[in-house]
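pls ignore typos typing on phone
glutathione + seq
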Amino acid sequence: MKLFYSPFHGFIHKALVTTHEAGLWDAMTFVPTYPFRNREGVDQGDRYSLVAINPLDKVPTLVTDDWDVIYGSEPICQYLDSQSRANRLYPEPGPARWDALRRHDRAQTYFENTVMMNMEGWRPEDERHLDVFEWIWPKLHRVLDELEEECATEQGFDIGHAATLHALSYMDFGSKFYEAVDPLHPRYDFRKERPNLAAWYEAQLERPSVASHFGRDYEGDDSPEFFARQLAEVVAARGKR
Ligand SMILES: N[C@@H](CCC(=O)N[C@@H](CS)C(=O)NCC(=O)O)C(=O)O
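k done
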């Protein structure tokens, strides 16, 4: 299997956590991919373009051992879980599954909204739309308050928890950008005045699936040449089917 993903380990990647929990780490070829370096004028063109296998040109994108392409973190995580040799993160159909999926969706939406604010924050100050921040922040605060309540009794680990770690850690990562540009909550710390959430989050950092990458430099080859070789192999194998 090959996982095309952006190797910024300043935040916790749901797809990496799922790979590790499933016992598939050694079965995976990780292919560093920097989609934002494809924009014209940035880093000389589309050297990390996934369009040959993913029209959305987004990470994460997974290629299975049968050369099937799966894009989108949610189907990727479901697929990896279905292949698990170790921990399963998706409970069987029933209340536990619906609750895990609810928490997953909450975290995924939180993450995507944070990305939206991040991108808005990249604009020059006089072009930033304050209403984007005013629209999103109350949602994030309500989610964090709900998490604080839940974390008082939180146990176990499922896909909802993996997605929550992804979203919260990305917010920390993003606050490096927000520092100068978030007009409402610069340097926001989700832990402040939320002791249950803070304790839960700290405890999760000890999980081997999180420690596998979080806070570590990527040590493999992240060159455009390596990316091109990996992609060419996929395209050629799919062409022969
Ligand atoms: N819904 C998708 C979102 C993936 C996504 O937005 N990835 C971003 C990086 S965080 C990306 O590849 N952006 C490049 C682009 O949109 O051109 C998922 O969960 O996988």
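Helices lie at 14-21, 73-82, 95-121, 130-150, 159-181, 195-204, 208-211, 224-239. Residues 2-88+217-240 form a domain with the Glutaredoxin fold (CATH 3.40.30.10). more later
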